[in-house]
Design a protein that fits this description.
There is one protein chain. The protein has helices at about 140-150, 170-175, 210-225, 245-260, 305-320, 395-410; strands at about 1-5, 15-20, 30, 35-40, 45-50, 50-60, 65, 70-75, 80-85, 105-110, 115-120, 130, 225-235, 265-270, 275, 280-285, 290-295, 295, 335, 355-360, 365-370, 375-390. By secondary structure, the protein is α+β, with helices and mostly antiparallel strands. The protein folds into three domains: about 1-130, RNA polymerase II/Efflux pump adaptor protein, barrel-sandwich hybrid domain (OB fold (Dihydrolipoamide Acetyltransferase, E2P)); about 135-185, E3-binding domain (Dihydrolipoamide Transferase, Irregular); about 225-410, 2-Layer Sandwich (Chloramphenicol Acetyltransferase), CATH 3.30.559. The strands form five sheets. Strands 13, 16, 17, 18, 19, 20, 21 and 22 form an eight-stranded mixed beta sheet that branches. Strands 1, 3, 6, 8 and 9 form a five-stranded antiparallel beta sheet that branches. A four-stranded antiparallel beta sheet has the order 5-4-2-7, with no helix packed on it. A hairpin with a 2-residue loop joins strand 21 and strand 22 (about 375-390). Helix 4 (about 245-260) packs across helix 5 and helix 4 crosses helix 6 (about 395-410). The radius of gyration is 25 Å and the shape is globular.
Length: about 400
């Protein structure tokens, strides 16, 4: 009997939710056969079987939150069973046997080598790329960025992750910040829940997945970014009935970036320093009912209106189908949130570091406006631009918004 544990899914993530099993108890499976889909704060990840054998027992059901390295399935390998590729090497000090929690992590070490085996595309698969790891701090890119923002020296930390990987918790602990975003630095106030009366008494539901990631990101945004929001409206009475509003908004945003490149940048407060980017990788906030995901439309500035529509449709469908990959939700350079499709005229959308700007569009209203011939009623798009005032001037933000409005007010 062999027990399989949830693999280390990378990015310092400590848990995942079981979405669906693709096998059942009693099934005979082969190595690398799709076994279970799990959802992290980043995306739905498919985990293949590490063995050839018989599924004896599933130890978690869909909807369960399981910790990294928690047992999730038991195998009967029988005679001459086949193990995953990493088990063909003799265990080293950094690699354990098949019955330990670390036996099927994404990152492991092969015997007699100074290379890390990093699994790509499918967690726990047998194919991967070798990357030199000797003599450097081991941390995921997101953890390194967090350490920069919190001015934490990674070389001084003791790693708590598998195989010496520095985790988000290691960085937060060194910075004096708890997982809930409260600080315990001397002299800095902390939040404590007050005693609750009978009408509020009861069990709390822990946040998980994208909702937990949102809580952490918004806490960092609130604590670090000097946010300012400016509001205005774009008059679209010249549009025809066939105009694609979303594509037009994206095109207008890209033209605003072309006129004011500083809006499309990432900021490092440790310098302080910024990097203005020539490509527009647009993060589009998409509401999927119980969560908010931000897939990325790459190179938006190079696409026609029809190409923008095609790509937006693809990202929306992938969000609905829960097939977005982590690569499709990282490294955006500016953000668009179209909250007006639901309700709301203006808002103060929050900038998520290291980006410096987010444009929000509200619900289209028919407003009374002064025209050359008198009073008219025109449809107008409410716009809310939030920017990081540490590196963006008010003039840059307003000039960007003026170009966005100018482009939106074109007939086509």
């Amino acid at each position: 009997m062999t027990t399989f544990h949830l693999p280390d899914l990378g990015e310092g993530l400590q848990e995942a939710e079981i979405v669906s099993w693709h096998v059942k108890e009693g099934d005979e499976v082969l190595v690398d056969q799709l076994m279970v889909s799990v959802e992290t704060a980043k995306a739905v990840v498919e985990v293949p079987s590490p063995h050839s054998g018989k599924i004896v027992k599933l130890l978690a059901k869909p909807g369960d939150i399981v910790a990294t390295h928690q047992a999730i399935v038991e195998f009967d390998l029988g005679q001459g069973a086949t193990l995953g590729a990493e088990h063909h090497a003799a265990p080293t000090a950094h690699q354990t046997s098949t019955t330990t929690p670390g036996s099927m992590t994404v990152v492991g070490r092969m015997a007699v080598s100074d290379h890390e085996l990093i699994e790509r595309v499918i967690v726990g698969g047998t194919q991967g790329g070798a990357v030199k790891a000797k003599g450097r701090v081991r941390a995921a890119p997101a953890v390194r960025m967090l350490a920069k923002r919190l001015t934490v020296d990674l070389t001084r930390l003791t790693a708590s992750g598998r195989h010496g990987l520095i985790t988000v918790d290691d960085v937060l602990s060194a910075a004096g910040v708890t997982r809930q975003g409260t600080a315990h630095h001397e002299g800095r106030p902390t939040y404590r829940m007050p005693a609750l009366g009978e009408r509020l008494a009861g069990e709390f539901e822990a946040l998980h997945g994208p909702r937990r990631a949102m809580a952490h990101a918004m806490t960092l945004s609130r604590d670090e970014v000097a946010m300012v929001t400016v509001f205005d409206d774009a008059d679209i009475h010249t549009w025809s009935g066939r105009t694609d509003m979303t594509a037009r908004i994206i095109r207008a945003l890209c033209r605003g970036v072309q006129a004011q490149p500083a809006i499309n940048a990432i900021f490092d407060p440790n310098g302080p320093a910024r990097r203005v980017l020539s490509h527009v990788d647009l993060g589009i906030a998409i509401d999927s009912g119980d969560k908010l995901l931000v897939p990325v439309l790459r190179d938006a500035h190079t696409k026609s209106l029809s190409e923008l529509r095609t790509e937006v449709n693809r990202l929306k469908q992938a969000t609905t189908d829960r097939t977005l990959t982590p690569e499709e939700m990282r490294d955006y350079t500016i953000t668009l949130t179209n909250f007006g499709t639901l309700a709301g005229r203006y808002a103060t959308p929050l900038v998520v570091p290291p980006t410096v700007a987010i444009l929000g569009t509200g619900k289209v209203h028919r407003d009374v406006v002064a025209a050359d011939g008198g009073i008219e009623v025109h449809p107008r798009i409410p716009l809310s631009l939030t920017f990081d005032h540490r590196c963006i001037t008010g003039g840059e933000a307003c000039r960007f918004l003026a170009v966005v409005i100018q482009d939106l007010e074109l007939a086509e």
